[in-house]
Amino acid sequence: MKIILGDNQFFGINHYDLKKGNKSKKIFGNTEDIKKFIKDSLEIGLDGFMINSNKIGYELISGYNQKNNEEIHYSVPYPHKYASIVNESGMLYLLKYFIQRTSIFVILKCIFPYIFTRNLKYLIPLAVNLEIPKNLKRGSAVYLQNIITDLVLGLKKVDFLEEFVKYVRSKGYKPGLITLNPILLDKVIEKSEILNEKDLIICFNINISGFNVFPNKTDVINFLSKNKNYKRMGMSIFSSGGGNIADSISFIKKLELDYIVFGSSKLKNIRSNYNSFKT
Amino acid sequence: MGLTHYSILNQIIPEAEFTFVETNSKLSFLLKNNINAKFISDPSLINSPQDFTLVTTPPFVHKSILIDSIKREDKNIFVEKPFGGHRNNNFDSNYDHIFIGYVLRFNPIVSWIKNNIKKNEVKEVNASYRSNTIEQKPTGWRNGNYSGVLNEMGSHIIDLSNYLFGLKNFKVEKSDIKSVFSDVDDVVYSKIIADNKIFNFNLNWVDSTIRKPVFDFEVILKKNKKIVFDQQKMEIFKSNKLIEKKYTVDLIKEIPYYLRGVDFTSQMLDLINHKSNLCRVGDALLVNNVMYKILEK
Predict the structure, then answer these.
(1) Where are the domains of chain B?
(2) Whole-angstrom Cα distance, residue B215 to residue B226?
(3) Is the Cβ pair A120, B30 closer than 8 Å?
(4) DSSP at B50
C-alpha cells in the first residue's frame, strides 16, 4: 500500500472543522512553504503527493523538480474557478473562456467532432489542457475531481469519463477518478473496456467512522474485499480528523487498498502516521 | 438549469422520465445531446400534469412558471430559493404541494439543532454567511434586483433563523448595505427583533479570504447557555464553559448517491418521500418579507 501526502491542509480544507482548516491555511502562506513541507514529508518516506490544479497547485507543479521515484497525483479542475465564472457571466461564457485560452490546433481538433455530434465529451481536452502544467512529468496521475465525476455519474454519461481517461492516457499520464460514490462508479467501470484498465486509480472516502462514506461503510468494505482490475486509493482515512488515529490506522491496514492519501499541517503527525502504517 | 437536482433524481428514482424546459436556445443546443431527457423551449407544450416539477430558473421567472404549473395540476412543485425574490410577497400560502429549496435545512447539524433546541429558550441569534462568490462585477440578472447577497445567500440564513428559532412578528431595527463589485448588495448587516428575540445578520459574498461558502450561528439561550454552530460542528456552552460538542462525523447520514453534500440528496429524498422538512410557501414568503424590509429600511 503506497502512502501519498494529501493537499487539504495547504488550502484550508477541513471537512470536520472549518476553523481548523482556516488555521492550517495560515501556516502555508506561499508556494515555497508548501514545497518545503512536501519535501520534508517525502524524506520521511511517503511515496508521493497529491495536489489540486488551483492557482497555487498549478504554480507549484510548474516550478517543481520531480525526483524519479516520487509520484505526483494531480487533480483537475479547480471547481471554484469555474463556479465563479458561471455565477458572474453564465454557462455560455465558460465555453468562450476555454476557447480564448486554447491553441487553434486543439480547438480545431475538438470543435469539429463537437459540431457534428454536439457531444460535450469532445470539449474535455479544452478544459483538461488548461489545467495541466507543461512541467508535470509523464507517468504522473491526473484525477478528475469528485464534483465532476459524481455529476457525470448522475447524468449517466459514461462516455464523458471514458473521454477524460483516454485523453489523460494520450498525454502520457495515468488516469484517476475521485468519487464519493465508489460503488456506483465501480458498476460503470466494470462495463467499460476503456475504464477497466490496470492504470486507472479511483480515489474515494473510507474510514472507521463511516464519515462521508457513501452509500455506507459496510457496502464500501464489502466492495474493497473484491479483487478489481484497477487500483483503489482511500482518502479521508482519519474521518477528516474526527476519528481515533490508532483505531483508524488499524482499520485501514486491514483493507485491500493500493494507495492511501492523508494530510496534516504538522510534520510530526505525518511521521507518526507513516510509521504506524509501515509497522 | 438544475443539473444537480436532475443528477440526484436521475439516480434515486428508477426509470424516471425527464423533460427540460429551456428557453435559452444556445444553452439548449449545447446540452440536449448530453442529457437523457426531452428538451422543449415552450412550457405550454406540456399538457398533462407532471409528478414532480422543479423550477430551478433565476428568481424573476419563478412566479410565472409556478402559476402555469399550478394550472396544469402538477402533483409536487419544487421552486428554488428565494421563491421569486424579495419583491414576491404575495402568494396563496395554502398550497400544500409547493416546496421551496432551502437546502441548509437538511444539514445534519441543523437537524440536530432543530430537534434539540426549543424556540422559547432563545434570546439572541448572531448569524453570518460569508463566501467569495463574486470576484468582479457580474453581468445580466446577477447584477440586478433579483440577485445580491441577501437574496442569494442571506435568504438561507433568514430561512434557517425562522425554521430553527422563529422570526414571526419581526421588525427590522437597523440595516447597512454596501455594494463592492455589483450594483446591488454585496455586504449586508441587519438587526431584527422578533417576539423579543434579537437577530443580527452579517452577510458578505465578496470575502476573498473564504474558499468555500460558510455560515455560522451564535445563539444566546436563557439560563446562561450559548450554542455556536456551522455546517460541520456545534458547541454548547454553559456560563462560558463548553459542556457538549458534536461534529457531522457524530451524525452520520446514509444516502444512496452523493453530489455536492448530504444536504442536496436528503432534500430530494424528502421531496419524493415524506415532505417533512421542506420549506413551504408561508415560510418562504416570510423570508421574502424580511429581505424586503431589510433592503427598504
Answers:
(1) 3-101, 104-253+281-296
(2) 17
(3) yes
(4) P
Average pLDDT per run of 10 along chain B, which is 297 residues long? 90 94 84 89 90 94 93 96 92 94 97 96 97 90 92 97 97 97 96 97 93 91 97 95 94 93 96 96 97 91
Block residue for cell numbers 464553559: B241
What are the two backbone dihedrals, phi and then psi, of residue A214, each rounded to the nearest 5 degrees? -125, 145
CA distance A216 to chain B (A): 6
Q: Which of A20, A95, A1 is nearest to A264 (CA)?
A: A20
Q: What is the chain B residue with the closest CA to A204?
A: B258
Contact assignment for B249 to A18 by CB distance below 8 Å: no
Nearest to B258 among A95, A180, A239 (CB): A180
The architecture of the domain spanning B3-101 is 3-Layer(aba) Sandwich (3.40)
ipTM, interface predicted TM-score of the complex: 0.90
From chain A, the residues in CB contact with B15 under 8 A are none
Is B29's Cβ below 8 Å from some Cβ in A? yes
Q: Which CATH superfamily is domain A2-79+141-278 in?
A: NADP-dependent oxidoreductase domain (3.20.20.100)
Which chain B residue's Cα is nearest to A91?
B27
Are A17 and B34 inside 8 Å of each other by CB?
A: no
Q: Does B139 touch chain A (CB under 8 A)?
A: yes
The domains of chain A are located at 2-79+141-278
Nearest to B76 by CA among B52, B49, B110, B50: B52
Residue A255 CA to chain centroid, in angstroms?
A: 20
Closest partner CB to B10 (pick from A92, A150, A156) = A156
Mean pLDDT calculated for residue range A231-258: 94
Tell whether B140 is within 8 A of chain A (Cβ): yes
CA distance B66 to A243: 46
Q: Cis peptide leading into A77, omega within 30 of 0?
A: yes
Among B7, B30, B212, beta carbon nearest to A154: B7
Q: Which three cell numbers stand for residue B47?
A: 399538457
Query: CA-to-CA distance for B222 and B224, rounded, in angstroms?
Result: 6
> What pTM was computed for the model?
0.91
Q: What is the dihedral of CA A158, A164, A168, A174, to 10 degrees?
A: -40
**pLDDT at residue A28 in the model:** 79
Residues from chain B that touch A155, judged by Cβ atoms under 8 A, are 3, 6-7, 10, 34-36
Q: Which residues make Cβ contacts (< 8 Å) with residue A30, sequence separation at least 6?
A: none
Topology adopted by domain B104-253+281-296: Dihydrodipicolinate Reductase; domain 2 (3.30.360)
C-alpha cell at A73: 497525483
The candidate with the shortest Cα–Cα distance to A234, out of A218, A215, A249, is A249
pLDDT tens column, A206-235 = 999 999 999 999 999 999 999 999 999 999
